[in-house]
Amino acid sequence: MDLTALIPFIAIIAFATYVQTITGFALGMIVMGAVTTFELVPIAFTSVVISVVTFINGAVALKGNFQAVDVKRVIITCSAMFPAILGGLLVLDYMTESLNSLLQILLGLTIIVAGLMIMLKPEPMAKPSGVLTFASSGAAAGFLAGLFSMAGPPLVYLFYRQPFELKTIRLCLLSIFLLSAVGRTTIVGAQGGLTIEMGVFSLVCLPIVTLFTWIGKKYPPKVSPNTLRRMAFFLLIVIGVSLVVKNL
To answer: What's the pLDDT tens digit per position in 152-169?
Structure first.
């Protein structure tokens, strides 16, 4: 990978890491959407790097905060997510070879829907959702994680409806994303899909991810959660529409 791709990729990684640290979501959507829009590297390559970055971001963000995680619901969600990751990877392999433009349109539409879901403000439920709801959301998230390394949309919508503290919601999401990253990378490695270039590039990104995760924890923006949602919504809609229009 030459510097013309490496430098903007790192800049996107840094920005997306900061956003995910302060919100609990959006890293995969921002990185995958922006990198694909500017055609820096293929989707399959970006997915692997996102998985590694997500793992580091989650590990740093969770340090000293694990006691706030709802472990039971994280386990329920992940139990359904891991098998679905394999399904998403199989679809990615097929579409990358023969339907790449359609794959990018699907990515754009997924990002647009995710942006719209971020702007929804459902009333928190009186009691937590049941096991089946968390498992179903985990399965949908797993498929998207396998396909695009974007497990966020179904999980963000579900967890923000729960009657939990905001910190618990954010850390549960980061925990699940961390585990999905481990699962996805393990499966890709078992399939022989990891390359030396992916590993080297991921290593280059690690200090950037660590730094901007720390910055996000130490210096969150002094804006309201609603403002953060609007900013994320606008960015994701722009990225998603760009991908769809470019490939029509």
So the answer is: 888 988 998 899 988 899
